[in-house]
Amino acid sequence: MTGFLSEISPGEWLGVLVAAVGLYFVWRQIGMVKRQLALTNYMEYTRRYSEIILTFPDEINYDDFVLESREDKSEILRAMRSYFDLCFEERDLFQRNMIDSESWSVWEGGIAAAMKRTAFQQAWPIVRDSSAFGSDFNKWVDQLAK
Predict the structure, then answer these.
(1) Interior CA angle at 80 toward 111 and 122, to 5°?
(2) Measuring CA to CA, how many Å separate 104 from each of 58, 62, 70, 96, 101?
């Protein structure tokens, strides 16, 4: 009894081997493209974060910061809205599995650190109440602010 594999010619084996090697290289190329896209995405969000943070006054990190008494309150709130929009997008990307856990961990740690600051705690209720992030995001940020 002759097996199926013994009926394949050497040329056909070569064709299968070439196809397998080709598929391997396509698979590797796809992996490299995915990594490059993830890096590009990460860099874009880092750039946006930097642009927002640079608009804040230096006092934003002080424990005695009082948003209500600031002459530049509206500018600060505009920047805070941009910041919280960015946070919402980052969290949404993570929930949709569009960024990896490692990147999300860095971003989430930064958001948690920001929410420990007085200025962000003062701005969040104002931004939350005038935005439409949704209750899930609102609860999450509320928890971080505690």
Answers:
(1) 80
(2) 26, 26, 33, 12, 5
Question: 44 vs 1, 7, 8, 39, 51, CA distance in Å?
Answer: 63, 55, 52, 9, 11
**For 8-52, how does the pLDDT look when each residue is reduced to its tens digit (9 = 90+)?**
787 887 787 788 878 887 788 877 777 888 788 888 989 999 999
Query: Predicted confidence band at 5 (pLDDT cuts at 50, 70, 90)?
Result: low
CA distance linking residue 145 with residue 114, whole number of Å: 9
Scored b (16 or more CB within 10 A) or e, 70-91 reads beeeeebbebbbbbbebbbebb
In the chain, what's the furthest Cα-to-Cα distance?
93
Taking the C-alpha atoms of residue 124 and residue 145, their distance in angstroms, rounded to an integer, is 9
Classify residue 141 as exposed, middle or buried by CB count within 10 Å of its CB (0-12, 13-18, 19+): buried
CB 114 within 8 A of CB 80: no
